[in-house]
Amino acid sequence: MPIFEYICKECHHQFEALVYGKEKAECPKCHAKKLEPQLSVFAVSAKGSSPSATPTRGACGSCGDPRGPGACSLGDMN
């Protein structure tokens, strides 16, 4: 099932939504339909990988930088 990330243009709430077929996503906070789609980082699972081979910290949720959250300084771009 596809999961999409959005920011509501009305209340600026950031959220993820499952969208089926031709359905349109809606903000769960204010129910507005004016949404801005965001770039998503997806996870990949390697077959046969052992838990010891899995990194202990995840990629940055904003840009996918493998060094982890905050490593890319994406938040400093205001």
Describe this structure as you would to a colleague.
Helices cover 0% and strands 18% of the residues. The protein has no helices and three strands. It is flat.
SSE blueprint:
Layout: E1 3-8, E2 14-18, E3 35-37
Antiparallel strand pairs: 1-2, 1-3
Name some characteristics of this structure.
single chain, mainly beta, Rubrerythrin, domain 2, 3 strands, flat
CATH architecture: Single Sheet
Number of helices: 0
Fraction of residues in H or I helices: under 10%
Global shape: flat
Q: Which value, in Å, is the CA radius of gyration?
A: 16 Å
What CATH first level would be assigned? Mainly Beta
Quick take:
The protein is mostly beta strands and 78 residues long.
